Prior knowledge:
Elements: H1 3-29, E1 34-36, E2 43-47, E3 53-57, E4 60-64, E5 81-83, H2 94-100, E6 106-109, H3 111-114, H4 119-123, E7 125-127, E8 133-136, E9 139-146, E10 162-169, E11 172-176, H5 184-187, E12 194-198, H6 207-217, E13 221-225, H7 232-242, E14 247-248
Parallel strand pairs: 4-5, 5-6, 6-7, 11-12, 12-13, 13-14
Antiparallel strand pairs: 1-2, 2-3, 3-4, 8-9, 9-10, 10-11
The structure holds zinc ion.
Zinc ion binds at residues 51, 88, 90-91, 179, 203, 226.
Amino acid sequence: MTLSMVSLRASLLAAGLSFLASTSSVTAAELTGDQVPTSAGPVTIHPISHATMALGWNGLTIYVDPVGGAEAFAGLPAADLILVTDIHGDHFNDDTLAAVTGSTTKIVAPAAVAEKMSPAVRAATTVIANGATTSLMNVGIEAIPMYNLTADRLQYHEKGRGNGYVLSFGNLRFYIAGDTEAVPEMRNLKSIEVAFIPMNLPYTMTEEQAAEGVLAFKPHIVYPYHYRGSDVDKFKALVNAGSADIEVRSGKWY
Ligand SMILES: [Zn+2]
């Protein structure tokens, strides 16, 4: 091989690499939404529906509680990592999981969810229990208990079944609460940059309870999600009245 052939091959290789790099940046751009900078690149927050979202970070795409069929994720990058919080239909749908789980996709879920999965979906799943931690694809994952405290809501979410999650992206911690009231495990969280907090009765919290829970652990940024029927402006006013250090943002959940 001549020297010019070698340099031609090298330049073709470089062109191929830059093509791949531009392809992946185009893919990442398909997730739209607010961006929160971390020590390892921004996290993109892409609301999808009631309790469902996609997060992008460091070349990864993460789906949280994917439901609504493959069409709910059309036009989005494929999932590298999927988190499922609980067994209810607004959080877990086996057909949707089967449709969006590729050969390299990893799922994290509690045992009660895994038990309801079809075999192929379950084979992609790492089961973690309340309080357990794991790390996948450089994302730290801690399962936080999510459950009801109010007597007439105890039937909806029993302690131990579902997982909220704290995800570590570089130097920052993001808390996805799942369907919960302001339980001690939420109130005692430390160093949360972004929190996703549910309302929506009778399953989770009133605006007052949600605001009071947020004020206990003081994330820097909070997004209400899973709030159908709740007054998000009232929640925001209550949080703002209690602390000037918490920013309440809104996204296209409901
Ligand atoms: Zn729910």
